[in-house]
Amino acid sequence: MAMAVATCAGVGRVPLAPGTAGSVLALPVYLVFYHQPLGLRVLSLLALVALAVWAADRAERLLGRRDPPSVVIDEVAGLLVALAWLAPSATVLIVGFLLFRAFDILKVPPARWMERRLPGGLAVVMDDLVAGIYANVCLRVILWVLG
Questions:
Q1: How does pLDDT run across 40-75, given as a tens digit for each residue?
Q2: CA 139 to chain CA centroid, nearest Å
Q3: CA-to-CA dists, residue 109 to 74, 104, 122, 128, angstroms
Q4: pLDDT tens digit string along 24-40?
Q5: Which of 41, 81, 123, 138 could form a disulfide with 118 if both were Cys (CB 3.0 to 4.6 A apart)?
């Protein structure tokens, strides 16, 4: 069960760019979350993050490897944070996706610190949540500038 959740039903096992594949999977999840009432949206995001930490932690133990590439539930959680509380549009989806992937790859502080210092699944997920926060803030600035 943990591996199915961690790999998002095998999406993380694609041979090239599994993190990007996981991020693409997050887009329809975001659309479902967006159409929930605000309180349920917050609870859903918190539940998904908790599930991601559990599944990533378990997957690390099962695979005997720290932050395995096949674990992509963290990308789903991170992209949901990147798009949180923004109305869906082509601009939001595309720019938010690109910003999240860039911040996820660059590991801007404190993401790299968290990835290296936190234990297990918490490390796997927290660096993506930091990337999501940075992407969300930058996306909001871009949308504000574009008016």
A1: 999 999 999 999 999 999 999 999 999 999 999 999
A2: 15
A3: 17, 11, 16, 12
A4: 999 999 999 999 999 99
A5: 123
Q: How far is CA 133 from CA 58, 59, 64, 96, 136, in A?
A: 25, 25, 29, 11, 5
Q: Residue 108 carries which side chain, given as an amino acid letter? A: V
DSSP secondary structure of 28-73: HHHHHHHTS-HHHHHHHHHHHHHHHHHHHHHHHHHHTSSS-TT--H
Tell me if the bond preceding 110 is cis, omega within 30° of 0: yes
Query: What six digits make up the tokens of 118?
Result: 């936190």
- Rounded to 10°, the helix 120-146/90-106 angle is 140
Contact criterion met (CB below 8 Å) for 124 and 57: yes
Cα 34 → chain centroid: 15
**Buried/exposed code over 66-82 (b: 16+ C-beta within 10 A; e: otherwise):** ebbebbbbbbbbbbbbb
CA distances from 123 to 20, 72, 146 (A): 19, 13, 35
